[in-house]
Amino acid sequence: xxxxxxxxxxxxxxxxxxxxxxxxxxxxxxxxxxxxxxxxxxxxxxxxxxxxxxxxxxxxxxxxxxxxxxxxxxxxxxxxxxxxxxxxxxxxxxxxxxxxxxxxxxxxxxxxxxxxxxxxxxxxxxxxxxxxxxxxxxxxxxxxxxxxxxxxxxxxxxxxxxxxxxxxxxxxxxxxxxxxxxxxxxxxxxxxxxxxxxxxxxxxxxxxxxxxxxxxxxxxxxxxxxxxxxxxxxxxxxxxxxxxxxxxxxxxxxxxxxxxxxxxxxxx
Length: 268
Prior knowledge:
Structural class: alpha+beta
Number of strands: 13
Helix content: 25-40%
Oligomer: single chain
Number of domains: 1
């Protein structure tokens, strides 16, 4: 790993980014937005029973060179590599997902970025609920971007809790603290999340990608598009045509047959 050199130009080309980058909030926001719009959230290697490798060379090979997507450990891992290569003061944090009401273990990776005495939480790996912009590390200060609104609140048990506003209610997404995270912590979280039978990612096929004025998401065989506030859904056939939809809607090309995908426990 010591001989690894992050190719900044190759990464910027992958995320369709043009322009210069400085160590400031505007550049952080621009890089975040560019990757968010181009590299999809997806778990198809997990469904294929493949190991999720987080070494820098492996992340670049899969997400940049092969133009695949990934889940939080991959998407935020790649983004963290990029931020550090551009000189940002950034480090990984681990969080607990609270979307079911029952908190998980520390199986969600995000990044903490510090710029001129201020800090932001950056997350590109929470599916359709991924924040489109960095979130200031400040309690009770709602942040909105297009159709998303988030805030951080204090949790006595878990530290920071990220919430999203849906209609008039605040929904808990995940919690995190600012404790140091070592590579072994990330390895543990990635291994459980990508292999354990109780993990959502081993029993479901998922993908998400922002599109112009909306999002496109996939859960097993249910494809959903939201464009300008209008929702469109379709049930996909469980055959090779499924892979054609992955390429068409998400830019995901899988080097396998549909039959190789693990059958998910729920169907749409």
